[in-house]
């Protein structure tokens, strides 16, 4: 039991410590502290006037439309373009649509295996590019929201913020991580696959490629899309224990730092501390559950002469250590990363519930930028409910929260549940879902539920036994990812725009504090009721039913 | 238009910096300082590439140590796991076949890592226990002393992550290469 505790302390503790200075740096970066860099960025964009919530949102959407269009074209024409040493052929358009939507929305759901689907140009120029700019989009949106709610007159300029995030935050970190994991063994070559003659005399062809650059930004930007099919279980993406630790910290680092940055921009570090604490509690509870549930061997070996002295090893890599599978599964789904360090489909049933819960809540640190935005929605609801309970006008940071803001917040929160549960219901009831299952029974239902949770939460991980490269799956999850990305970004900006238009009142002794344990508790309860309870019936049909069936 | 033009300008700038310059930088670093790693850790024996240090290859002969099962049959171009759940009857029957291959019995159960397929299907390592479990078979097939084989296994084994991941593992290709060197 000591080893997993040490590992969790190293990863989560290390990330917490690093997130503090990084949050400070991000706050000064986005406050225009680096004037010389900013002037270069303004020249690159042409102009950078102050924007209100509508202009900022439109700029964001237009740039994201350009992202989608360019990568759609690049993927669709990869077979005609250079940097294709393994001769990848033309991809079907439904897969191109799904993949372009997936990487534009920072989801990185992958209905393909990279080594047998995309050329090096498609992977680097299309997918890796989106891993930078989609992450930068999320961070920019949070910065705009924080400026608005913090009382600044304008939300800033999207084109300036995007460059600050991409060039001054993601790029330097990616260079550090890429060089480190390359040292540990992640390949960085433009040569095609290697052909070797094994000791027993058979020919083995081994895919490789420019993976180190790709893997670094995949982790830092909560993207999660792997260069190779099995993602971070592939030895070339995750060659040893230390590369593994570096990557796990990279997954959670910027989402954590986003909370501190938010606190600094609004000038309320104690409030940020409460939010960080609430997120950390949820994270640790999920990690504890996952590590515990996964310490039991897979039930499939129960009646065989197999040693039962270690936990479930199906779908896990020995070099990464026993606790990595469950720990990574929680980190990657608490944030909207979605890379995997073990195969989630083979996790014990209740372990598999932990990543699903992470995607349902989608705010326990969450995706870069957007995780904190989702938490903002929960905060608005919590403040409103608390205000009603004590019988006074709900206020958040001096802004009156009224019916209009509440309606918008509920719209955004409910859309998450509707996308996931609605999609699951349709596919579970029809041949679209039933014909694509990799496992039978309750676990088959879990595969469908997981896929829609992953698409709706812009996560990207999967129960990969599901045969999801079909036209219905590609189109349905493509649409869910798009709605699940832009609605929860635009609606909160609209809420803040609405709050900004009102006169801000000074906080008094009668104002409900957002800094203490009472508020933290209220926030936890709100998240549990809205996030967890909505999904409990679905959980009962999937992982919980499967777990109960094991007892017989 | 006031949004499209800056978007197109940023499209170009971010592509040049985040894709072209960034990839070139990492590529230059890796190929200059660690070309062996950068090109896939390919092991060459007298000029012939025999495998990657990091990628499992199949061994089926009794004279070699066997790797963990691979759901993709060690396909370096299509890696992946079994994706079978603990309630899967298919997983149980696959495991039964593996158990039979090792001739495991209730008195001599096989270590779990030799039965469970890895996530990528290319895990290059087995546990120390999994290697020692096979030592007798390898020694018999090679007509050498089991103690010699066990010593070789222990010399090759290492803990992957110090106190954070102390269970020792053995790289199968490295171990088998050492066995072959011993025979020469």
Description:
The complex is a heterodimer of chains A (552) and B (184). Chain A has 552 residues and is an all-alpha fold. Chain A is built from 18 helices and four strands. In chain A, the strands form two sheets. Chain A has a two-stranded antiparallel sheet with strand order 1-2. In chain A, strands 3-4 form a two-stranded antiparallel ribbon. In chain A, β3 (395-396) and β4 (399-400) form a beta hairpin. The relative contact order of chain A is 0.12. The model of chain A has no long low-confidence stretch (mean pLDDT 95). Chain B has 184 residues and is mostly helical. Chain B has a domain at 57-183. Helix content of chain B is 47%, strand content 8%. Chain B has six helices and four strands, in the order ααββαβααβα. In chain B, the strands form two sheets. In chain B, strands 1-2 form a two-stranded antiparallel sheet. Chain B has a two-stranded antiparallel ribbon with strand order 3-4. In chain B, α4 (128-142) packs antiparallel against α5 (146-156) and α5 packs across α6. The longest helix of chain B is centred in the N-terminal third of the chain and has 30 residues, at 4-33. The radius of gyration of chain B is 22 Å and the shape is extended. The model of chain B has no long low-confidence stretch (mean pLDDT 96). Chains A and B meet through α1, α3, α6, α7 and β1 of A and α1, β2, α3, β3 and α6 of B.
Radius of gyration of chain A: 23 Å
Shape of chain A: globular
Largest beta sheet: strand ordering of chain A: 1-2
End-to-end Cα distance of chain A:
28 Å
């Amino acid at each position: 039991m000591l080893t997993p505790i040490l590992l969790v302390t190293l990863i989560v503790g290390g990330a917490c410590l690093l997130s503090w200075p990084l949050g400070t740096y991000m706050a000064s970066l986005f406050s225009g502290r680096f004037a010389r860099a900013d002037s270069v960025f303004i020249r690159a964009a042409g102009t950078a006037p102050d924007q209100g919530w509508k202009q900022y949102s439109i700029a964001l959407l237009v740039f994201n439309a350009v992202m989608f269009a360019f990568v759609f074209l690049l993927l669709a024409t990869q077979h005609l373009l250079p940097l294709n040493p393994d001769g990848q052929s033309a991809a079907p358009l439904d897969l191109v649509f799904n993949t372009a939507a997936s990487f534009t929305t920072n989801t990185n759901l992958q209905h393909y295996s990279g080594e047998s689907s995309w050329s090096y140009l498609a992977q680097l120029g299309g997918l890796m590019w989106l891993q930078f700019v989609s992450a930068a989009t999320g961070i920019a949106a949070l910065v705009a929201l924080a400026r608005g709610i913090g009382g600044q007159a304008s939300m800033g300029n999207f084109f300036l913020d995007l460059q600050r995030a991409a060039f001054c935050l993601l790029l330097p970190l990616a260079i550090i991580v890429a060089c480190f994991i390359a040292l540990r063994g992640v390949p960085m070559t433009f040569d095609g696959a290697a052909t070797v003659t094994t000791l027993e005399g058979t020919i083995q062809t081994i895919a490789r490629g420019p993976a180190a650059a790709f893997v670094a930004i995949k982790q830092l930007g909560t993207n999660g899309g792997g260069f190779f099919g099995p993602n971070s279980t592939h030895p070339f993406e995750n060659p040893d224990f230390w590369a593994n630790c570096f990557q796990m910290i990279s997954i959670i680092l910027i989402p954590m730092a986003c909370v501190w940055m938010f606190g600094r921009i609004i000038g309320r570090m104690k409030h940020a501390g409460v939010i960080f604490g609430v997120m950390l509690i949820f994270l640790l509870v999920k990690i504890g559950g996952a590590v515990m549930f996964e310490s039991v061997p897979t039930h499939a070996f129960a009646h065989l002469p197999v040693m039962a002295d270690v936990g479930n090893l199906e779908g896990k890599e020995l070099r990464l250590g026993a606790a990595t599978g469950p720990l990574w599964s929680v980190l990657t789904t608490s944030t909207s990363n979605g890379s995997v360090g073990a195969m989630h489909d083979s996790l014990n049933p209740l372990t598999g519930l932990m990543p699903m819960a992470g995607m349902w809540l989608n705010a326990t640190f969450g995706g870069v930028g957007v995780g904190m935005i989702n938490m903002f929605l929960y905060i608005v609801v919590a403040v409103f409910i608390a205000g009603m309970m004590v019988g006074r006008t709900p206020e958040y940071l001096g802004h009156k929260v009224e019916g209009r803001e509440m309606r918008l917040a509920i719209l955004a929160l409910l859309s998450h549940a509707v996308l996931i549960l609605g999609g699951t219901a349709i596919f579970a009831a029809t041949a679209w879902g039933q014909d694509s299952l990799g496992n039978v029974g309750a676990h088959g239902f879990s595969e469908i539920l997981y896929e829609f949770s992953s698409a709706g939460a812009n996560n990207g991980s999967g129960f990969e036994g599901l045969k999801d490269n079909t036209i219905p799956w590609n189109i349905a999850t493509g649409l869910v990812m798009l709605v699940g990305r832009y609605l929860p970004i635009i609606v909160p900006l609209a809420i803040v725009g609405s709050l900004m238009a009102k006169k801000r009142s000074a906080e008094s002794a009668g104002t409900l504090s957002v800094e203490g344990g009472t508020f933290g508790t209220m926030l936890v309860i709100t998240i549990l009721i809205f996030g967890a309870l909505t999904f409990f019936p679905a959980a009962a049909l999937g992982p919980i039913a499967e777990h109960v069936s094991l007892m017989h | 238009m006031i949004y499209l033009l800056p978007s197109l300008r940023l499209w170009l700038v971010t592509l040049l910096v985040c894709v072209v310059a960034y990839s070139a930088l990492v590529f230059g670093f890796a190929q200059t300082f660690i070309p062996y790693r950068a090109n896939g850790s390919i092991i060459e024996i007298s000029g012939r590439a025999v495998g990657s240090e990091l990628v499992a290859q199949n061994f089926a002969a009794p004279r070699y140590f066997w790797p963990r099962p691979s759901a993709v049959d060690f396909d370096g171009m299509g890696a992946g796991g079994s994706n079978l759940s603990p309630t899967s009857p298919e997983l149980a029957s696959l495991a039964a076949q593996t158990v039979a291959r090792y001739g495991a019995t209730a008195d001599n159960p096989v270590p779990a890592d030799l039965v469970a397929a890895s996530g990528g299907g290319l895990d290059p390592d087995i546990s120390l226990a999994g290697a020692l479990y096979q030592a007798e078979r390898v020694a018999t097939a090679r007509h050498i002393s089991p103690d010699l084989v066990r010593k070789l296994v222990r010399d090759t084994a290492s803990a992957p992550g110090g106190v954070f991941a102390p269970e020792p593992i053995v790289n199968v290709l490295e171990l088998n290469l050492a066995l072959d060197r011993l025979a020469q």
